[in-house]
Design a protein that fits this description.
Blueprint lengths: L10 E10 L9 E7 L12 H5 L3 E3 L1 H11 L3 E5 L9 H9 L3 E6 L13 E5 L15 H4 L5 E6 L2 H14 L1 H4 L2 E6 L6 H11 L4 E2 L3 H5 L8
Parallel strand pairs: 2-4, 4-5, 5-6, 6-7, 7-8, 8-9
Antiparallel strand pairs: 1-2, 1-3
Helix pairs in contact: 2-3
The structure holds iron/sulfur cluster (SF4).
The site of iron/sulfur cluster (SF4) has 11 residues, from loops.
Length: 222
């Protein structure tokens, strides 16, 4: 393919696949996924090492957009790794959003406004157990759109109390469409996190990874 000077830079892609959306308020919906390679963080519980450090192939924005169109699905998610690290990501997002509903997962350390305002951003706020909570860009709280969602991945009681305090201090549930509390798989039982949420009557959703329930043996492409 001939690349012209006006073309956005090619993307480093870890994998593309179709699956059931496992998280967020869209959980259960068929979705086309683009997992971009590379990440600027190193969370202790990271379950996508292959996207952080593994092999990537180069694909153009046009090729990725065409692959989404050819999937005949209405929903596309760009995830990682950390998608906002790549220079071509804003152009990719602008192209995808013309073809369907766009979700972007980001780790909260980079500017949310690199994504178009119409994209539904699912933004992490990293808790202390991740080892990366000091890397958050807290200005992103003010940048949230009403349709965005915020996710806390919680490993233990200390993480939970930190998340509750952060939620209340920044009024996060009033600034976005949903706040998701997700247990670290294999570390915090979902029933325990559910009990804490109920006990405190929190305005959050328990966020479970449905793809891991449906395909417990799969490690990639979910
Ligand atoms: S931000 Fe996501 S991909 Fe990056 S290290 Fe943390 S869990 Fe892994």
């Amino acid at each position: 393919m001939k690349i012209t000077r006006m073309d956005p830079p090619p993307m480093a892609v870890s994998e593309i696949f179709t699956s059931i959306q496992g998280e967020s308020t869209r959980a259960g919906s068929p979705c086309f996924f683009i997992r971009l390679a590379g990440c600027n963080l190193d969370c202790r519980y990271c379950d996508t090492h292959y996207a952080r450090k593994g092999a990537a192939r180069k694909m153009s924005v046009a090729e990725l957009t065409r692959a989404f169109r050819e999937s005949c699905l209405p929903l596309v998610e760009v995830t990682g790794g950390e998608p906002l690290m790549q220079a071509g990501t804003p152009a990719l997002l602008r192209s995808l959003i013309r073809c369907g509903q766009l979700l972007l997962e980001t780790n909260g350390s980079l500017n949310r406004n690199l994504a178009p305002s119409g994209a539904v951003v699912i933004m992490d706020i990293k808790t202390p157990a991740s080892g990366e909570h000091e890397r958050m860009d807290w200005r992103n709280i003010r940048r949230l759109k009403a349709h965005d969602e915020v996710k806390f991945v919680i490993a233990d009681r200390h993480d939970y109390l930190w998340a509750v305090e952060t939620l209340r201090r920044h009024d996060i549930d009033r600034r976005c469409a949903a706040v998701l509390f997700s247990p670290v798989a294999g570390t915090l039982p979902s029933s325990r996190l559910a009990g804490w949420i109920m006990s405190d009557r929190l305005p959050v959703r328990l966020n479970l990874q449905w793809h891991r329930v449906i395909w417990p043996q799969r490690r990639r492409g979910v």
